[in-house]
Amino acid sequence: MVVGIIAAEIKEMTAIKEIMQEISEEKIFNLTFLKGKIRDKDCVLVKSGVGKVNSARTTQIMIDKYNINYIINVGSAGSANAELNIKDIVIGDKLVQYDFDITGAGNYEKGEICDVGKFFYSDKRMINLCNETINELKDRDFNIKIGTIASADLFCTDSNLSKKIREDFGAECVEMEGAAIAQVCTLDKVPFLVIRGISDTPNGNNHIDFVTYLESVSKSVAKILYKLISKI
Question: pLDDT at position 205, please?
Fold first, then answer.
C-alpha cells in the first residue's frame, strides 16, 4: 500500500517531511517526489504549487507514477465559519469548487461540473478513521471539525465573499487546491482525504495571519496525519 501526500506550500510539505523516515528523492516534470515511510507505511510526498491546475496536474502524475492507494491533501485554509479560529483543523467530508459557474449555460447549480457533479466526497473509511483519531487526540490545543471545504483559484480576503461561500455551499473553510485534487481522485477512482489547518480569516489581515501561522498550523495537520496514517 502506498499513501500519496500533496501539499501546496514548502512549509506545509516540510511539516510532513519531518515525520517521514527513509527518505529518497525523485524528480519528475520539475516536481520533487519524496519517497519514505510514516509509521511503517510507504508514502510519497510532493509540493504541488498553489492553485487548482498545479494541484490537479501533480495529482495525476503521482497516480500514474506511484500506484497510489490513497491520496491525502494537507495544508492551510481560510475560515468561512465564524466559530472556527486560527489553528483549528477542518477535515473535508466533501469538496466543491466554488469558482466553477456554468449556470448561464443551462440547468446547472453553481459549483456543478459537467458530467462530474457539484461535490466530491471523501472516502468514507478515511472519514471514520478521522473520527477515531479525533477521539484519541486528547492533548490538542485546537478544535477539529469535519465538513465541507471549498476551493478556488483565489486567496479569499473578502468577508462578504466568505459568508456567501458558506451560505451557498455550507463551507467550513476556503483554500485553493483540495477540490481539484478531489476531482482527479474521483475520476481516477482513488480514495482521498483533505486536511486543512485554519491559518487566516477574512479580516483585512489575511496575508499577515497566513504568513504568521502557516508553520504552526502545518505542524498540527502533520500531528493528525501521523496518528491517522497508522490506521490506514
Answer: 61
Distance between CA atoms of 210 and 225, rounded to whole angstroms? 21
Task: Give residue limits of the domains in the chain.
Answer: 2-229
Rounded Cα–Cα distance for residues 124 and 143 (Å): 21
For 159-202, write each residue's pLDDT tens digit. Answer: 889 999 999 999 999 999 999 999 999 999 999 999 999 987 76
Going through 54-143 in order, the beta strands assigned E by DSSP cover 70-79, 89-97, 120-121
33-59 mean pLDDT = 97
Respond yes or no: is residue 12 known to be catalytic.
yes
Which fold does the domain 2-229 belong to in CATH?
A: Rossmann fold (3.40.50)
Spacing of C-alpha 26 from chain mean position: 23
Residue 112 a catalytic site member: no
At 215-226, the pLDDT tens digits run 888 988 999 999
What are the residues whose beta carbons fall under 8 Å from the beta carbon of 80, sequence distance 6 or more? Answer: 150, 156, 162, 163, 165, 166, 171, 172, 173, 174
Catalytic residue among 12, 93, 112, 123: 12
How far apart are alpha carbons 110 and 103 in whole angstroms? 6
Q: How far apart, in whole angstroms, are the C-alpha atoms of residue 174 and residue 12?
A: 16
Q: Choosing from 123, 175, 200, 209, which is the catalytic residue?
A: 200
**Per-residue b or e along 18-46, where b marks 16 or more CB atoms closer than 10 Å to that residue's CB:** ebbeeeeeeeeeebebbbbebbebebbbb
What is the C-alpha to C-alpha distance for residues 198 and 57, in angstroms, rounded to an integer?
25
**pLDDT-derived band at 70, boundaries 50, 70, 90:** very high
